[in-house]
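To whoever is on call:

I kicked off a structure prediction for a single chain this morning and the downstream step that reads the tokens threw a length-mismatch warning. I double-checked the sequence; it's 240 residues and nothing unusual in it as far as I can see. Pasting both halves so you can look.
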Amino acid sequence: MTDKLDILAIAAHPDDAEISCSGTILKAVADGKRVGILDLTRGELGSRGSAEIRSAESAASAKVLQLSARANLGLKDGFFTYEEESIKLIVRQLRHFQPDIVLCNAPSDRHPDHGRASKLTKDACFYSGLLKIETEWEGNQQRHWRPAAVYSYIQDYYIEPDFVVDITEYWEKKMEALKCFSSQFFDPTSSEPKTPISGEEFFEFLRARAMQYGRPSGFLLAEGFIADRPIGVKSLSHIL
């Protein structure tokens, strides 16, 4: 039994995907694709909010993004490790959702969880295709599955993208999804500690970054991605 997705975004924390690739998600959904998000942790170590609050915020954002699925593995925020158990938990989700494309955290970033989540995800995508790694879903043996492509979305640190996706039409909806995480972002009435993403200027930074990524390709706003291997195209007409 599977719940087939076209795209699965995997994120160390709730809101990682919203910050970095939700415009791309919205565009894919508008194109008729089935898209889901898998959060590895509940973000319980965050300076603002709580695991319970962030779970409710994630559900609200999922509705804005019109996701076909959203799940959370409940790994330990800040202290999840690269180990067999964690990899197999991700493998089970990959084999259940059978995504053609996986989007994952940046390989290196300000938050150390992001790089570890990136490696976990990429390796799990490989191991998910191995016949001799056995996993079950609701008591049934799962079939092996390997995504056709894995791309890293870009987060806090600037990374030169290998390709960008035009999200100009979806910027306002992306902001609506982000603002579902009201505990994490700008709130003039909040008495919680200030963080690198809680200032009013953070949304300005995101738009400026999107403009920076979009400009070379002739887009007003874009999200950037990096690939671990050359991206093939069937003809030159597929390249802008």
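Update from on-call: the warning came from a stale cache, not from the record. Cleared it. Sanity check on the structure: The chain has a mean pLDDT of 96.
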